[in-house]
Design a protein that fits this description.
The chain folds into 2 domains: 122 residues, 3-Layer(aba) Sandwich (Rossmann fold); 98 residues, Arc Repressor Mutant, subunit A (Orthogonal Bundle). The two termini are 26 Å apart. The strands form 3 sheets. A 5-stranded parallel beta sheet has the order 2-1-3-4-5, sandwiched between helices. It has a 4-stranded antiparallel beta sheet with strand order 6-7-8-9, covered by helices on one side. Strands 10-12-11 form a 3-stranded antiparallel beta sheet. It contains 8 helices and 12 strands. Strand 11 and strand 12 form a beta hairpin. It binds calcium ion (CA). Calcium ion (CA) binds next to loops.
């Protein structure tokens, strides 16, 4: 889960970023409207949390620009209390939800999860491919009924691959979605992470006589095997 937060108040940005990270989300933060629009236009995010009053370019203008450019990324607006007109305008411009300040980060996380369930039927809470089962809410992966003890990063990686079984993802795509920094794609950080996941799964898989569900595609990247 990768979230873009566009918010100029550092105090709010800090507690939201901390709450998201604790939840295992990858979070990128922009503190002004110009950078925010640029990142929202070019990055791949699962959801955008957008403040309305921003320096550079205001949130409603960003929202309008993104929707005009065809972006369908779910957007939650952060509004000040009593900004009823802004909320109505935001929803009519294509925002998916809004939350009035002040708010608890737990509520924002719950709204994001509800939103992602709502906006897309494919985003179910539980993904199941063959004997592998991934629960997005509990953030748990089981294989052949046994829990695989994964770190947050490992979970995010397997979740990303499992969204489209059989599809090959390049290292650049995986870095963009699962890491919050622009690493050089030639780094072996992904390979190391995949190796760790495979190792954790192998102790279960050997017992169950199954092959690792994550396949390397030489010179390209990785894919989650299509399992019957
Ligand atoms: Ca603001």
């Amino acid at each position: 889960m990768k979230v873009l937060l566009i918010e100029d108040e550092m105090k709010i940005a800090d507690f939201v970023c901390a709450g998201f990270k604790e939840q295992g989300f990858i979070v990128e933060h922009c503190a002004n409207g110009i950078d925010g629009f640029d990142r929202a236009s070019h990055g791949a995010f699962d959801v955008i949390v957008l403040d309305i009053m921003l320096p550079g370019r205001d949130g409603l203008s960003i929202l309008k620009g993104l929707r005009k450019a065809g972006s369908a990324t779910p957007i939650i607006l952060l509004t000040a209390r009593n900004e009823l007109d802004d909320r109505i305008e935001g929803l009519s411009l294509g925002a998916d939800d809004y939350l009035a300040k002040p708010f608890f980060v737990e509520e924002l996380i719950a709204r994001i999860q509800a939103l992602l369930r709502r906006v897309s039927g494919e985003r179910q809470n539980v993904l199941a491919v063959g004997d592998v089962r991934l629960d997005r809410i509990a953030r748990e992966v089981t294989w052949c009924g046994e829990t695989v003890d994964l770190t947050s990063r490992e979970f995010n990686l397997i979740e990303y691959l499992m969204r489209s079984p059989g599809r090959v993802f390049t290292r650049t795509q995986i870095l963009e979605h699962v890491w919050d920094y622009d690493f050089d794609p030639s780094t072996n950080i992904i390979d190391v992470c995949i190796q760790r996941i495979r190792k954790k799964m192998s102790s279960i898989g050997v017992a169950a006589g199954s092959e690792s569900p994550i396949e390397s595609v030489r010179g390209v990247g990785y894919r989650f095997r299509k399992l019957a």
